[in-house]
Amino acid sequence: MVLCLATVLVHVLLVFLEVAPPNPISRQYSRQVNAWVFPLFEQNWRLFAPDPESVNRQISARTMHTAADGTVQVSGWFDLTAVDTAAVRHEPFPSHTAQNMLRRAWTSYLETHGGDDRQRSQRALMIQRYLRNIAVDRVAARRHGAFESIQLRVITLPIAAPPAADGPGHVAAAPRSADTRYLPWWKVARRASD
Fold first, then answer.
1. What InterPro entries would the database entry show (predicted)?
2. How far is it, in rounded angstroms, from Cα 111 to Cα 51?
3. What DSSP assignment string belongs to 84-151?
């Protein structure tokens, strides 16, 4: 009981230091606060002022396995986004996790890695592992066979602007094309799917 109470108090204190205005204590312990808060307890204002998506992303994963005879086997692409969509569709009270876990992990990855897939901080490394672990868990739950590496592919499709009401002579801008990004292969602990 005492351990539970102490954990709750420490959690509340660390989250408070994260959301409070910058002060000497939060600056001094920022490393410890960030290690506790990110990515699971991140606080932001998107609930009150959402930032609507301007693109649709399809995140897929494939795995690689080296057989006993040395041959390398690469799986086909597995659509992780479709798993999330299926978990939300026709669900009157969809899970926040099903709706946002993968999407927010990718957004955080973009924020910490930019376009070159190189982590420059401990937080970036943590976000990379978080994204990798989400993909590994979802692939392992739905595919059979062992694998040692995983690769992600992200296809970004711009959402078309609504038709203009400027009249018949108005020409709409041509939609932008899809952008495909392949992340590097990430090693995972030897994993056997059920």
1. DUF5819
2. 15
3. HHHHHTT-SS--HHHHHHHHHHHHHHHHHHTTTT---SHHHHHHHHHHHHHHHHHHHHH--EEEEEEE
Q: Which two tokens stand for residue 191?
A: 């994993």
Q: Specify whether 138 is located in the same domain as 189.
A: yes
Q: Rg (Cα) of the chain, in Å, rounded?
A: 21
As a whole number of Å, the end-to-end CA separation of the chain is 37
The whole-angstrom separation of Cα 130 and Cα 40 is: 10
Per-position pLDDT tens, the chain of length 194 = 899 999 999 989 988 888 888 889 888 988 888 888 876 776 666 555 555 667 889 999 999 999 889 899 999 999 999 988 888 888 888 777 777 889 889 988 998 987 888 888 888 999 999 999 999 999 998 888 889 999 999 999 888 777 665 555 555 555 567 899 999 999 998 655 54
Q: Is the pTM above the cut of 0.70?
A: no
Give CA–CA dist 87/157, Å, rounded.
Answer: 21
Residues 144 and 187 in one domain: yes
- Residue 111 and residue 181 in one domain: yes
Q: Are residues 1 and 89 in the same domain?
A: no
